[in-house]
Design a protein that fits this description.
The protein is an alpha+beta fold. It is 38% helix and 14% strand. It contains eleven helices and nine strands. Strands 2-6-5-4-3-7-8-9 form an eight-stranded mixed beta barrel. The longest helix is centred in the last third of the chain and has 22 residues. The radius of gyration is 20 Å and the shape is globular.
Length: 368
């Protein structure tokens, strides 16, 4: 049976029900098959840990791993695994348990057949918060056991594309993201995002982080607009840069993607105390290069793999405004990459695959 791009069958260590729970036939009673992000593999196959409800919606329930007091913050190095026991930024991991109709997020475990049993019927009173465990091959909540039937990779790996082709596709995306007359905050968001890009182009970490700090937590909702912009930008630079570099239009190793990684780590550190828990998790995944599936689809389309306009509209359908803000961040990354290829000579710089420099911790003034 063919699988969607980026999805793989689980490892042989899983039993038959875990491997093929959605491929035909019924699952064992109480056992629910799901498609999981590879970012969750360390959590799902690690030791057993408690989880508790963080937030509940009609199509998703967010669970936070409850290991007691948070671990001390590190010096800023990127963790090797998204589901590592102690995040580098002192926050507990968050798992998104998703209905089949929900958007696949990098920390998501998406049911393939079951409807969201956690949803509250109209007129019903509040339901008790759920709790359970994760590890030993799955997620358990009450008498339900969620196990993996497929994996998907949230880290983009794009086909080679020229700078000219990327620029042309970015120009087609821009008109689709134009804000309506009821978006008074766009000018401020755009100015702050531009300042982040300027700092990255100059490899000026301090300027980029200062500008990014003005965006962290800016806006209402579960994932504020400023966070969505940063996640889209910082997670997209490396894959787009690599795709263009593969054609010879850019140096394979350059300062901008290295600076973007450092800034993404600094943003994730600051987000722990500067925004919602769910949004901080989004930025943490962005620092590791992981994105939601609609963002992945748009990045592939920008690289010439798949139709562009449907990919844009698919991302715009995410949330009330989150998809649009994520798309604006991705577009900024595409334009930065294409612009640098057009104006800068190829030159060897710091390697993007070597040791990741650590951004020194420093206090910053919160933006308004």
């Amino acid at each position: 049976m063919s699988l969607p791009p980026g999805e793989v069958r689980p490892e042989p260590r899983m039993d038959h029900a875990e491997r093929w729970g959605d491929a035909g036939g019924a699952s064992a009673p109480g056992r629910l098959p799901a498609v999981a992000s590879l970012a969750l593999r360390p959590l799902l196959f690690g030791s057993l840990r408690a989880v508790r409800e963080l937030a509940r919606f009609s199509q998703a329930i967010y669970l936070v791993v409850d290991d007691g007091p948070p671990a001390p913050r590190s010096s800023g190095a990127v963790p090797r695994a998204c589901g590592s026991r102690a995040h580098a930024w002192g926050s507990a991991p968050v798992i998104a348990l998703l209905s089949p109709a929900a958007t696949a997020v990098p920390g998501g475990l998406q049911l393939t057949t079951a409807q969201p049993w956690w949803a509250r019927p109209p007129g019903a009173g509040p339901r008790a918060a759920v709790a359970g465990t994760v590890g030993d091959g799955g997620l358990s909540i009450g008498d339900r056991r969620v196990t993996v039937c497929r994996w998907w990779d949230p880290v983009p790996r794009l086909a080679p594309t020229s700078a000219a082709a990327l620029r042309a596709r970015a120009d087609r995306v821009a008109p689709l993201l134009r804000a309506g007359p009821t978006d008074p905050s766009l000018a401020h968001l755009r100015a702050s995002l531009s300042a982040v890009c300027d700092g990255l182009e100059r490899a000026d970490d301090e300027a980029a982080v200062t500008a990014a700090d003005a965006l962290i937590g800016l806006g209402p909702g579960l994932t504020p607009a400023g966070d969505d912009l940063l996640a889209g930008l910082l997670a997209s630079i490396a894959p787009l840069w690599t795709a263009v570099a593969a054609t010879g239009d850019l140096a394979a190793s350059a300062a901008i993607p290295v600076a973007a990684r450092r800034v993404a780590v600094a943003v994730a550190e600051r987000a722990v105390d500067g925004t919602t828990t769910v949004s901080a998790e989004l930025l943490r995944h962005a620092a590791t290069g992981a994105v939601a599936r609609p963002v992945l689809t748009l990045l592939r389309a920008l690289g010439g793999h798949g139709p562009l306009e449907p990919a844009v509209h698919g991302l715009l359908a995410v949330g009330s405004s989150s998809g649009r803000d994520l798309a604006r961040g991705v577009l900024a990354a595409a334009r930065l990459t294409a612009r640098h290829a057009a104006t800068s000579p190829l030159r060897p710089t710091a390697t993007a695959t070597g040791p990741r420099p650590v951004l020194p911790a420093r206090p910053l003034t919160r933006g308004t």
